UniProtKB/TrEMBL annotation:
Domain LexA repressor DNA-binding: 1-65
Protein name (database record): LexA repressor DNA-binding domain-containing protein
UniProt xrefs under Pfam families: LexA_DNA_bind, Peptidase_S24
Family affiliation: Belongs to the peptidase S24 family.
UniProt keywords, alphabetically: Autocatalytic cleavage, DNA damage, DNA repair, DNA replication, DNA-binding, Hydrolase, Repressor, SOS response, Transcription, Transcription regulation
Annotated PANTHER family: LEXA REPRESSOR (PTHR33516), LEXA REPRESSOR-RELATED (PTHR33516:SF2)
SUPFAM superfamilies reported in the protein's UniProt record: LexA/Signal peptidase (SSF51306), Winged helix' DNA-binding domain (SSF46785)
């Protein structure tokens, strides 16, 4: 990859941060707002330069069509309880040499499972669980949920409130 300018590094940091926080890439307007550009067109020019240099991949025709190139593996970012919730540990402990594109949707990171309450779903103690960040989940999906400073893995079951 070619050397990036300081402004391009800032744009790349905004992209990484937005993906980390929300699970999806920012729009050109998001980048412009975050970095004080006068218009989304300025963000677009920086994105084109980043794509030419191999720092990002652009998907035409979509407002959030920005993808970070695959790394050599997925980070293992701590543990998740399959049973009683455990303290969330958000430190990268290691990486696993498996392509993120193996999973649909693409996995963002891995968590190591502690406990056996999800054994009927095929999730065993000490398994690595591929996690895709998303702002919403649907009834019946297996989710990693954060409750205060603890995380747990469960099947989401919504109840009707009166």
């Amino acid at each position: 990859m070619e050397k990036l300018t300081s402004r391009q590094v800032q744009v790349l940091d905004v992209i990484r941060s937005h993906i980390s926080d929300t699970g999806y890439p920012p729009t050109r307007a998001d980048i412009a707002s975050e970095l004080g550009f006068k218009s989304p067109n300025a963000a677009e020019e920086h994105l084109k330069a980043l794509a030419r240099k191999g720092a990002i991949e652009m998907i035409p025709g979509t407002s959030r069509g920005i993808r970070l190139p695959e790394s050599d593996g997925l980070p293992i970012v701590g543990r998740v309880a399959a049973g009683n919730p455990i303290l969330a540990e958000e430190n990268i402990e290691d990486t696993c040499e498996v392509p993120a594109s193996l999973f649909r949707p693409r996995a963002d990171f891995l968590l190591r499972v502690r406990g056996d309450s999800m054994i009927n779903a095929g999730i065993l103690n000490d398994d690595l669980l591929a996690v895709h960040k998303t702002p919403e989940a649907h009834d019946g999906q297996i989710v990693v949920a954060r409750i205060d400073d603890e995380v747990t893995v469960k099947r989401l079951r919504r109840t009707k409130s009166k």
